[in-house]
Amino acid sequence: MALHRIAGGVLLLVGLLAALAAPASAQASSTSTVDVVEAVGVLDDPLTDFVIGAIEQSNLDGSQAVVIRLDTDGALGGDIDRLVDTIESSDVPVVVYVGTAGARATGAGVRVAAAAHVLALAPTGLYGVAHPADLGDPGARTVGEVASDLEALADARGRDADFLVDAAESGAAVIAVPDGETGAPIADGTELPEGTDPTVVRTLDESALAEAGIADIVAPTIQQVLAALGGREVVTNAGDVVLDVDPVTANVRFVNLDLVQRILHTASSPTLAYLLLLAGALTLFFEVFQPGFGVSGFSAIGVLALGVYSVAVLPIQPLWAVIAVIGLLLLAYDLAIAGLSWPSAVGTLALGAGSINMWQIPQLAPPTWLIVVGTLSAAVFFIMMMTSVLRAQGNQALLGAKAVEGKVGIVRSALGPEGHIFVGGALWRARAPQGSGKVRTGTKVRVLGLNDSLTLDVEIVDDTSTTKV
Fold first, then answer.
1. Which residues of the chain have a pLDDT value below 70?
2. Helices (H), 32-74
3. What phi and psi values does residue 101 have, to the nearest 5 degrees?
4. Peptide bond preceding 100: is omega within 30 degrees of 0, i.e. cis?
5. What is the tens place of the pLDDT at every residue in 365-386?
6. Cβ contact 21:29 at 8 Å
7. pTM for this one?
8. Contact, 389 vs 416, CB < 8 A?
9. Longest dimension (CA), the chain
10. pLDDT for res 468
11. 459 — phi, psi (to 5°)?
C-alpha cells in the first residue's frame, strides 16, 4: 500500500510539473511566431479588413513580429485610415516588405509602408508616387492632405519627410537596387506608374536608402528580410522593442485570405470583372434563345452578379458602360430577327468602344488586346455560332413539333402566356390560347403546331380527353 501511495505521489508530481511546463512552452512558441501576411492587389475592403484583422490577431497571440508582403497600386475603397491606425497602435512590430522583385507600393500603399516600424524593399521594388490616395476617387484627398499625412508618419518613424512629400506632390519614387548600384539607370522593362516622370525616380541600394531615411532593408526574399531584422530597435505602442528574430528557429506563420475574402478580392480585378460580365452576358443570351431556361441560365445569372459586384467597386464611366450594353443588345436583336446587317456591325463597334472607354483609371483597365479579343469573340458568337445553332434548332423543332401535333400534353409550368408543357415524352415551351388568361399547372392542352418563335401553340382540352400524353 505504501509503495502504491509513493508511486501515486510521484505521478501526481510529474503531472503537476508537466502542467506548469506547458504554459511556458506555449508562451515560448507564441513569442517566436512571426506572421507573414499577404497583401497583394488593390487595397479594397476585403483586403484591407483582412490585413487589419491579421495585425489584431498577431497582437492577441503575442507574436514576435508581423510582416506584411505588400504589392499594390493603391487603395480602391479600403479604409486606409483604419489600417494605418492599426499599425500605429500595434504592440507587435509591423514590418512592410514591398516584394518580391518587381513589386510596388504606390498610392495609398506609400502611406501603409511609411507607417511600418521597419520598411523593406525587394530589388527592383518601387516605392513612391503617393497620389491619388484612392484610385476610385482621386479627389477624395488633395495632394496637400496626402503630403501632410505622410509628413506626420515620417516624423513618427524618423524617416525622410522630404521624399514622402515629393512622392505626393511630384510623384517621386525610388527603385531598390543591389548593393553598389545606386544611381544605375532604370532597368529596361521596368513599368512605371501611369504618368510618372522618369526623372523623379531614383535607383538606390540598401545603404543609400537607409542613409536617406527612406527604407531600412533591401532583400530578395522573406527569409532574408527575417534574417535582417535581428537586433533592430523599434518603438511600438508598447514602447521600445528589440527584434530578435531567428529565421531558422522562428515559427513563421503565413496568413492568407480565406475563400470568401479571396473571391471578393479577386473579383475587384478589372480583367476578371470584364471577363465575368462578358461570359455571363453571352451565356445568358444563349439560354434566352433556347426553348427552356436551365442550369446554364441560372449559372449565367450568378456569374453576371459577381461581375456586377466587381464593376460596382471599380471606377467606371457609366455612359460608356451603357454603350457597351447597347452593343450587346443590338447583336442579340439582329440575331433574333435573323437580319445580320447594320445592327450587328453597329453593335460590335459599340461593344468594343464601350469596353475600352468605360474604365476611368488606366491602371485599372483590362489590357486592350483582351478587350479586342473579347469583342470579336462576342461578334463571332452572335453572328456565326448562335445563327448556326438556331438554324439547327429550328429544323429539329419543326420535325419534333410535327410528331406531337394533335397530341394532348400537361402544363408543367403555368402558361402566362408562355410556359412549359410535357408532351411526347419531352418538355416543350408552349403559348396559351389568346384570351384564355393564365393556364395553370396540371391543365391538359392539345398541341396545334409550332409558331415562328419555335413555341408550341396549344388549346385547352377538358379532362374527358382520351388522347395519350
1. 1-31, 290-294, 338-340, 391-399, 453, 463-469
2. 45-61
3. -50, 135
4. yes
5. 888 999 999 999 998 888 888 8
6. no
7. 0.68
8. no
9. 105
10. 46
11. -130, 155
Q: Which helix (DSSP H) or strand (DSSP E) does residue 224 occupy? A: helix 222-229
Q: Three cell numbers at 391?
A: 438554324
- Helix ranges (H only) for 62-204 are 80-88, 108-115, 143-157, 161-169
- What is residue 427's three-state secondary structure? strand
18, containing H or E segment: helix 2-31
pLDDT of residue 127: 97
Please name which of 46, 418, 426, 104 lies closest in space to residue 258, comparing C-alpha atoms.
46
pLDDT at 466: 46
